[in-house]
Amino acid sequence: MALAIASSAACVRTSAPAFGASTSSCSFRSALRADSALSATFKPRTAAAQRTGAVQVSSAFDAIIEVGGGQQLVSTGRFYSCNSLRLEAGTKVNFERVLAVKDGDDLKVGQPYVKGATVQATVLEAYRGKKQIVYKMKPKKHYRKKNGHRQELTKFLITGVSQ
């Protein structure tokens, strides 16, 4: 797990593998400013940092749609879940709020939506998610309140993307 940065300003920063100790002759940002053609190798220190670090977008998507109060990267032939759409199973749906459409290597991004683009889907089921427990307590006052919540969800299958 090493971090090595070198620039024309002779800034060098390395981290020793033992407990993440590091030595540095200048800051990371000043090294970036000093040389635009900087070669850097960076690995987050913890597994949590690796999971929540840079956003990695899969190249295997056909469109980005706005559905159920959120955004979904969708591909034809796959199924997805979103907040309840209040539709029955078997219903055919056309999503017209398409934020981006991918056609081979070409990516069309809307402002905010791509004109004329639709995503066709079929509702597979309406179901309820796993129960979330909400527990309130006030110490020394004998106040305890326990509630549960199950989110209404809809599962749908993407059948096609048209531009």
Describe this structure in words.
It is a single chain. With 163 residues, the chain is mostly beta strands. The protein has 2 domains: 49 residues, no CATH class; 100 residues, no CATH class. The chain is built from 2 helices and 14 strands. The strands form 4 sheets. It has a 4-stranded antiparallel beta sheet with strand order 3-2-1-4, with no helix packed on it. The longest helix is centred in the N-terminal third of the chain and has 7 residues.
Structure in a nutshell:
The chain is mainly beta. It is built from two helices and 14 strands.
Key structural traits:
163 residues, mainly beta, four-stranded antiparallel sheet, 2 helices, 48% strand, disordered N terminus
| Average pLDDT reading | 78
User: Roughly how many Å apart are the termini?
Assistant: 46 Å
Spatial order of the strands forming the largest sheet: 3-2-1-4
Q: Give the tally of structural domains.
A: 2
Assign an overall shape.
elongated
The proportion of residues forming helix, as a percent range, comes to under 10%
The proportion of residues in beta strands is over 45%
